[in-house]
Structures are given as C-alpha cells and as structure tokens.
Specification:
Number of helices of chain A: 0
Radius of gyration of chain A: 13 Å
Distance between the termini of chain A: 36 Å
Shape of chain B: globular
Oligomer: heterodimer
Number of strands of chain B: 11
Strand content of chain B: over 45%
Shape of chain A: globular
Largest sheet of chain B: 7 strands, mixed
Order of helices and strands of chain A: EEEEEEEEEEE
Helix content of chain B: under 10%
Largest sheet of chain A: 7 strands, mixed
Structural class of chain B: mainly beta
C-alpha cells in the first residue's frame, strides 16, 4: 500500500499567519491527492481535489500544489474558523490511504 | 442539495452483528461510487472500502477485508456497511462519502455523511 507521510503532526499559529502542511507519498501518485478538513463532531470537508483544484465553496485562502510524491496545502491567512485538523488522501491506487493528519492550533 | 444520511448510533456487544446505512439524496445515486471511512477515538481517518452502486463492484483495504462487507440497494439509494462479528476494536465513528469524478478525471470525496458512532463493549 502507498504510505502517506504528513508533516507536521501539529502546529501552533496565529490568526493571519500563513500555514503550510505537506504530504509525501511513498511512490509516484501523479496528482491524485485530496486535502480534507476535520472538525470534531462534523463530517470531513473536501478542500482541494486532484492536488491543486479548489473545491466549490472553499475560501480562496486555501490552495494546494505538488505532483508525483510531494504535495502541499497552504492557508495564506489563517482565520479563526480554520483551526482544525487537516489530512491528505491519495486516490491513485487501492487501497486509498490517508496521511496521519495535522492539527492546527491557536498560538 | 446532495445529502448522505447515515443511520443512528449503535451500541453492541462483542460477537454481535451489525449493519449501518447511508442513504443518498439530491443526486443520481447510481452514478457515484460510495466510500466508507473509519475514525477511531482520537485518531485519524482510515479508508476502508468503496463500492460502485451500478454494479456493486467493491474494493477493500486489506486492513478491513474479510471483517466487513459493503453493499448497496440501488432501489432505495442506500449503501451499507456490515459486520458479522463485532470486536471491541471496531469502536469508532464510521463515515460514508461520495466519490465525485469530473469529466477530466479529477476527483475527490465531495459529500460526506454525518457519521455513525459504533460502540462495541461488553
């Protein structure tokens, strides 16, 4: 199975900060990667699909980049509602696999 | 509006069987694969399996294959996740999600159910 290594596992940031989260795949997955936001008690939310495409309704401060094995989720200016856990998912090959998650906390 | 409505929380004992459901509405159910995802308490997401409602073709993660079964009833726009014999380690939140695929092949799990909490305890 393809391993997805996500870093950091957690970070502290302030409102207005730029935040960068990375996922590294154990093999080439082209651009078959999505980024999801998790909040307690809520369904996960798709933010970015196919590495760099912004899902409808998601604020433009979120962006994704990368291809092959290295991917990045960037939040350009962190907002209060962005404090959450973020995870990547490769859908290149079965079994699909998630990263371990990055918890974004208030500094 | 696309909605995936999951069945309610369950409390079961080890060894019991269980079938939870995920009903889609607001879209053509048969046109979108449905995935199942587990979230154990305090942990991240784990991809379990996926099914094509058109033909019931399934793909499972090796971590779950043989312990769970996924199925669909297209006539009522519903997907299912079932266990024959639950274990305490099955205690988790389970989500269903719709796989959206664009005409150009880009894709993502764009709509999610609210989750079904399964508690297995003696």
């Amino acid at each position: 199975a393809i391993q997805m290594t996500q870093s950091p596992s957690s970070l502290s940031a302030s409102v207005g900060d730029k935040v960068t989260i990375t996922c590294r795949a154990s093999q080439d997955i082209r651009n078959d990667l999505g980024w999801y936001q998790l909040k307690p008690g809520r369904a996960p939310r798709l933010l970015i699909y196919s590495a760099s495409n912004l899902q409808s309704g998601v604020p433009s401060r979120f962006s994704g980049s990368g291809s092959g094995t290295d991917f990045t989720l960037t939040i350009s200016s962190l907002q209060p509602e962005d404090f959450a856990t973020y995870t990547c998912l490769q859908d290149y090959d079965y079994p699909w696999t998630f990263g371990q998650g990055t918890k974004v906390e208030i500094k | 509006e696309v909605l995936l409505e999951q069945s309610g929380a369950e409390v079961k004992e080890p060894g019991e069987s269980l079938k939870i459901s995920c009903q889609g509405s607001g879209y053509t159910f048969r046109n979108y694969w449905i995935a199942w995802v587990r979230q154990m308490p305090g942990k991240g997401l784990e991809w379990m399996a996926i099914i094509n409602p058109r033909d019931s073709i399934t793909r499972y993660s090796p971590s779950f294959e043989g312990h769970v079964t996924i199925s669909v009833d297209e006539s009522i726009n519903t997907a299912y996740l079932q266990w024959v014999s639950l274990r305490a380690s099955d205690t988790a939140m389970y989500f269903c999600a719709r796989l959206w695929v664009s005409a150009t092949g880009t894709s993502g799990l764009d709509s999610w159910g609210q989750g079904t909490l399964v508690t297995v305890s003696s």
